[in-house]
Amino acid sequence: MRIARINTASGTRHAVERAGSWHHIVDPFEAPLRFTGGTTPAGEAELLAPVAPAVVVGIGHNLTLNDHPLPIQAWHKSVHTVAGPGDRIVAARGRGTVNVEGELAVVIGKQAADLTAENALDHVLGYTCVNDVTNVDQNAVDERNFQGKAGVNYTPLGPWIETALPDPERAGIGVFVNGVPKANSGTFNLPSSVVDCLVYVTSWLTLEPGDVVMTGAPGTAVPVEPGDRVDIVVEGVGTLASAVG
Amino acid sequence: MRIARINTASGTRHAVERAGSWHHIVDPFEAPLRFTGGTTPAGEAELLAPVAPAVVVGIGHNLTLNDHPLPIQAWHKSVHTVAGPGDRIVAARGRGTVNVEGELAVVIGKQAADLTAENALDHVLGYTCVNDVTNVDQNAVDERNFQGKAGVNYTPLGPWIETALPDPERAGIGVFVNGVPKANSGTFNLPSSVVDCLVYVTSWLTLEPGDVVMTGAPGTAVPVEPGDRVDIVVEGVGTLASAVG
């Protein structure tokens, strides 16, 4: 099932896709879902970031993909950076290379503390694509990941939440710039599994419904320039498109 | 002027203190303030964290107070850690020493990007006390400040916002544990000034009304244990009390 967040005549609504329309719902985090009766034709829906998270956590994978001596880490990214499909990433000027990073994002469905490998996925509402835009040269001088990760629209999310991804540990991830494939990998290349990320994060921080965990870029960081169009494709989820300006 | 956030019969409200009562207002970020006509006697008011920030930024002062070779840095603390006056800090067990850190917190009043030394304070609504609780031993193994800063009620804020602090660069800060003075310092001991913190943070991240910048602990970190009572006193603002459990 796909859950999106869209603009409607009565304000911002979550909605479920059925037969070419988005059917408005009251609350994506309740079960069973309640439908308001309102619908928006898919072709007319303006898709927003599918959640408005209170917390966005990124994962620093420090094992096989680089030479960093530390184990898995996490860090917070400002929620002010969250953007929707189609929003323009404002690439910082004069601050080094701007990378897009294609990642699988986990959307938490219920309060999650001290998750285990056995119950972690039970706390997930679903999955979406995230583009963890980064001023990558700043990471060398800013070990806190602040300077590299705080730009305007630096966290495009979307296009929707897929609640039925068959196996989040085996989701292919592609990055396209101006339609040209630039990276082709998947969560199977992450040093720590998606489940391990959730277990680690919730061993320190209690997550709440709507929070987002960006599971890291498995070799999916690609430099971009103003004028580029970027597509992040997560297999089984969809395509998240952004302009770079 | 003191602006608090309190529980009322009609829900959570901001309020202004006058003559022993809290006078309810519509929105602390608008000028002039609009009063609803409702009041709560000061003795009956349950004070909450005086804002519900979307972003809480901490400052890493890396100049004279330690031997770190890097300049000023910033990092995000989870908003899930924000607590009100009197809330119980859940000190992590088995994860090393738990420090309280008494700091001056800046509450942003209007959107703030690329602030300058000249205009920075024009974007401030006011000041409150913050206790940046930290599992300090984790910082040695977690350069992202995630493991040390994510515990339950690890960011007590309050008791109110003081909009008329005469000079935020010269605010004394005291830390008391069980009534005993344990640290006595002030913002005048910070390696970077309060204004410099705001200039630095907004050179990378656009802050919004209600966001909080914790300006750092000028030698005001004190270890605590379950059962302790902690008071953070910021001269000209007030006293923020917390239990440690």
TrEMBL record, chains A, B:
The lineage of its organism: Bacteria, Bacillati, Actinomycetota, Actinomycetes, Micrococcales. Keywords: Metal-binding. This is 2-keto-4-pentenoate hydratase/2-oxohepta-3-ene-1,7-dioic acid hydratase (Catechol pathway). Residues 1-50 form the Rv2993c-like N-terminal domain. Pfam families: FAA_hydrolase, Rv2993c-like_N. GO terms for molecular function: acetylpyruvate hydrolase activity; metal ion binding. The keyword Metal-binding applies. Residues 67-244 form the Fumarylacetoacetase-like C-terminal domain. Gene3D superfamilies: Fumarylacetoacetase-like, C-terminal domain. The keyword Metal-binding applies.
